[in-house]
Each structure stands twice: as structure tokens, then as C-alpha cells.
Amino acid sequence: MNQDRRDRLRDAAVAVLAESGGRGLTHRAVDAAAAVPTGTAKNYFPTRDALLRAVAERCLEQYRALAAALAGPGPADAEQLAALLAGLLRDVAGPGRPRVLAYLELQTEGTRRPWLAALLDPIAAGDFAAHAHLLRTAGLPAGPERARTLTLALHGAVPHLLTGAPDTLAAAGLDDLDRFARGLLAAVCAEEAR
Questions:
Q1: Using CA atoms, how far apart are residues 171 and 156, in angstroms rounded to an integer?
Q2: 49 DSSP assignment
Q3: DSSP designation for 191
Q4: Cβ-based neighbours of 57, under 8 Å, separated by 6 or more
């Protein structure tokens, strides 16, 4: 099969899932989004589960590319790490929005399809190790508890950034992502009470 066309269909499926949700992910919708003849997506991904698997695999590829970029030299200090985290959060609400929405839709589907949950597991699980690495690289305390706190706080911010409700963003401090990231790092890395 043509790999370029397969990737085009997978990217179209990510876009359809992000825009229309799980119920809107159909072979016909993917064909339309990819601007290919009707039946093309079904030829590549014969079942709905095969289509979901294709989207999950594409999301995993995109996650691994992002993780590889972050695994480089990394931030040299807390200020650089805060800027990097704020940039990641901006990506969620900006260019990365379709990818993140598709991933969240896949997580919902994964509650009914254990094979899909297992396929997605490396994405969320990888964030804990990645954030511990970023904390260490920036010269900050990076124990498992701190990495968990940072990861879960960032994950908790995602739905609010996606919906963009202004009062909620303000209440959560997400209306200023630079300030949010600096405050989060300060809270996560604060010295333990004596």
C-alpha cells in the first residue's frame, strides 16, 4: 500500500476525530477530509477498530517526535524550563490542538477498548519520565513525587486550555501561561517544610 496515502489518511482521521469526536470518525468522513475517493480509507483500515488504531499510532508517532525534541540538551535552568512548559501549553491551545483533542477522544474510546488504552499508555506514562528529565536538566529537584505533581498539573491544565473559557482560565491562572509555568515550578520545587 502507498505509505504517503496511508499517512494522509491517518492525518485526516486525526483531524476528523478532533473536530467531530468519536461518533464522527467514519471511513466516509476520513475520505472527505483526505480528499480521496470514497472507499479509500476502508481499503487501508477495513474496520472502525483499525481506523482507531491508525489514529492512535499516528498520535504516538507525533508524541515520540515531540519527546525526542525535548530529550535534547534541555533547559539549563528554571527560567528556561518555565519557558519551555509555557510553550508546550501554548501548543495545546494552538497548533497542537487537533492532536490533543484527538488523543483525548482516543482516551475516551479506550475506556471501552482495553487494547486501545494499552496502545495509548506510553504517551501519558512517558510524560512522567520526560518531566523528571527536564527538572534534572534544569538543575531542579526531580524526585518521582515532584515529577508526578508537575505532570498531573500540566495534564489538568489541558482541558481548560482546549475549552478556552475565560473565567476558568483566569481562575486557574492559565490566562498568563508564562506566569502559570513559573508558579507551577516554584510550587513543585519548593523546599519541603521543616
A1: 13
A2: H
A3: P
A4: 10, 119
**In whole angstroms, what is the distance from residue 117 CA to residue 110 CA?**
4
Separation between Cα atoms, residue 141 and residue 122, nearest integer Å: 24
Nearest CA to 151 out of 175, 133, 169 is that of: 133
pLDDT digit string, tens, across residues 27-84: 999 999 999 999 999 999 999 999 999 999 999 998 888 888 777 788 999 999 999 9
What cell numbers appear for 124 in the block? Answer: 501519558
Q: Using CA atoms, how far apart are residues 155 and 108, in angstroms rounded to an integer? A: 15
| Residue 98 amino acid letter | P
State CA 13 to chain mean position distance: 16
CB atoms within 10 A of CB 148: 15
Cα 123 to Cα 51: distance, rounded to the nearest angstrom: 19
Residue 136: CB atoms within 10 A of its CB come to: 14
pLDDT at 147: 95
Mean pLDDT, the chain cut into blocks of 10 residues (194 residues total):
92 96 96 97 96 94 83 88 95 92 95 95 89 94 94 96 96 97 95 44
Asked if residues 84 and 147 have their Cβ atoms less than 8 Å apart, the reply is no
CB-based contacts of 23, cutoff 8 Å, min separation 6: none
pTM of the entire predicted model = 0.88
Rg over CA atoms, the chain: 19
The size of the chain, in residues, is: 194
